[in-house]
């Protein structure tokens, strides 16, 4: 709105300088770009991210399997693991040595994080595995993927708005620098005679 008011104010003003009108036009163009280009870019990026993430959801849900592992023994280090996609309260998981069967029927043996409060030999717990039977993270779910896509679109829109505003500020800064340079040149031309009686008469 300030850009529109600026254009209207400078329309027939006799004190208007070329840079005043240029600044108002730059502000108006920036406003239009922020109002149009930023949402369009955000929508396109969000849609592309949604498409890609939903493909990943389908692929992960198709290839990852939940299998039952058996505790062989607890290991000494018991780090706290946090699952970034978890919506429930995160709980500590204990590192254990475990056996499990891969989706292809092969027996696997290795360390895993068990969501057991106090793991003992023979206890069972669930782990996600890839097609080769290696332990992996749980598959991405559709609502989480949608949330990530929305955030990506929102971030892209903010980035475009920030770039447009930065370009506007840079353009105005250059115009102001040019205006100051013109003033300096005018003062240099008037300098030798400035203040003398009869100057300009």
Defining key terms:
single chain; 201 residues; alpha+beta; 5-stranded antiparallel sheet
What is the compact description of this entry?
With 201 residues, the chain is an alpha+beta fold. The chain has helices spanning 2-9, 18-63, 142-190; strands at residues 65-74, 94-101, 107-114, 124-129, 135-136.
Total number of strands: 5
Q: Taking Cα atoms only, what radius of gyration do you get, to the nearest Å?
A: 33 Å
The proportion of residues forming helix, as a percent range, comes to 40-55%
> N-to-C terminal Cα separation, in Å?
45 Å
Strand order of the main beta sheet, please? Answer: 3-2-1-4-5
Outline the low-pLDDT stretches: 78-82, 85-90
Briefly note the structural class of the backbone. alpha+beta
Shape: elongated
Name the beta content range: 15-25%
Number of helices: 3
Q: From N to C, what is the helix and strand string?
A: HHEEEEEH
**Main β-sheet, in a few words?**
5 strands, antiparallel
Q: Could you tell me the mean pLDDT? A: 80
Structure notes:
Mean pLDDT is 80; it is low at 78-82 and 85-90. The chain contains three helices and five strands. The chain is of the alpha+beta class and 201 residues long. α1 (2-9) packs antiparallel against α2 (18-63) and α2 (18-63) runs antiparallel to α3 (142-190). A five-stranded antiparallel β-sheet has the order 3-2-1-4-5.
What secondary-structure arrangement, pairings included, does this model have?
Elements: H1 2-9, H2 18-63, E1 65-74, E2 94-101, E3 107-114, E4 124-129, E5 135-136, H3 142-190
Antiparallel strand pairs: 1-2, 1-4, 2-3, 4-5
């Amino acid at each position: 709105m300030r850009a529109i008011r600026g254009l209207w104010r400078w329309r027939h003003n006799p004190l208007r300088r070329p840079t005043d009108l240029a600044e108002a036009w730059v502000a108006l163009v920036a406003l239009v770009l922020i109002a149009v280009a930023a949402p369009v870019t955000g929508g396109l990026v969000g849609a592309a991210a949604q498409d890609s993430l939903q493909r990943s959801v389908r692929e992960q849900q198709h290839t990852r399997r939940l299998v039952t592992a058996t505790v062989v023994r607890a290991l000494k280090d018991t780090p706290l693991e946090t699952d970034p996609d978890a919506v429930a309260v995160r709980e500590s998981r204990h590192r254990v040595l475990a056996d499990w069967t891969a989706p292809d029927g092969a027996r696997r043996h290795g360390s895993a994080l068990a969501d057991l409060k106090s793991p003992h030999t023979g206890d069972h717990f669930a782990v996600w595995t890839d097609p080769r039977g290696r332990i992996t993270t749980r598959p991405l779910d559709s609502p989480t993927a949608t949330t990530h896509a929305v955030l990506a679109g929102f971030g892209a829109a903010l980035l475009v708005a920030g770039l447009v505003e930065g370009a506007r500020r840079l353009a105005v800064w250059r115009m102001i620098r040019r205006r100051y340079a013109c003033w300096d040149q005018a003062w240099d031309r008037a300098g030798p005679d400035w203040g003398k009686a009869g100057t300009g008469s």
